[in-house]
Design brief:
Layout lengths: L2 H17 L3 E9 L5 E8 L9 E7 L14 H15 L7 E3 L5 E5 L6 E2 L6 E10 L8 E9 H4 L7 H17 L12 E5 L4 E2 L4 E2 L6 H18 L6 E2 L3 H7 L3 H13 L3 E4 L2 E4 L1 H4 L2 H14 L6 H4 L6
Parallel strand pairs: 8-9
Antiparallel strand pairs: 1-2, 2-3, 4-5, 5-7, 6-7, 7-8, 10-11, 12-14, 13-14
Helix pairs in contact: 4-6, 5-7
Length: 315
Amino acid sequence: MTPSLETSLTDTLGSAARAAGLHVLSIETGTDFHQKPTARFHLGLTANASAAHSLLLELSDAFDFHQVGSNGDELLPAMTLHLREAASRLRNPRPDAYVTVAGLPISLGEFAWPFHRSTTGADTYIVHGVVRLEDGSAPILHAKISASMTVTFAEIVPAPEQPYAETFIYNAVRKTLDYGQLELVKSGNRQPVPVTTRYYSRWQKKFFFTDTTESTRTDFLKSKVYWLSGVLGGDQPVWIADPRDGQYLNTTSEELRSMATALEREGFVKLTADYAAPTARLLDHAEEFKAKMEDALLATKPTFNEEMRHGHTNM
């Protein structure tokens, strides 16, 4: 661990973690894609948090929170906000698990932060990770991904580091799955996840991924509570006001909270503050959630033109 890491990055990160209600469990050195040194922080809600309920935060060794980002924003406040949201997410039974609008329960992990410049000559920044299908059985189906951020898009991002990019990268992965453009397989090469300015409005200064209706958002919350609590979490409650979901659905935490309250009145969920667990009424719809997942999974599979398969072409 370099002296600069000990005196600057570690101290600043430790203060931000405490402000977010997190404990620094351990610090270790790592390397990025180009073998440059990184600092790997393991954070948890308690001093003895398990690995499954800890956050791995990896930053460039020389990263300085006290500078101004490439977009003119201060870096430390955004970092503190990232950790506060992570603390709420760590209270989920599976903090690494998400659902897609299409109905796929997934986990996201093994990301190699920070971004690195493309080695193929493309004018992009790259980060590698893995998305896995999480349907309650062994997570065999997965996709190794290569999320590429254009140089133009990078101008929007304060810094090419995990706290400033994880949310929109995860949402870009979910959106790419919704499009059926990532195939979940037992083994395979890395698949691209393009991240471009189509996901961002410079005028409104906000991200756009999915233009959803109230019905879509209600179905999303039901699916989230069913899969992440009912199937993966042993009915332990999950955070339903996650701003990461708000960005993905083009809505707000406040609206998600209001919709969850409506679902409680209808008897689908049980709320404890901003966390929801399924009721018997929601679990009774298990076959519908499974059928929706199978349809979404089928949409990720390559299809072939049967006419061309049998040689019937106009060429």
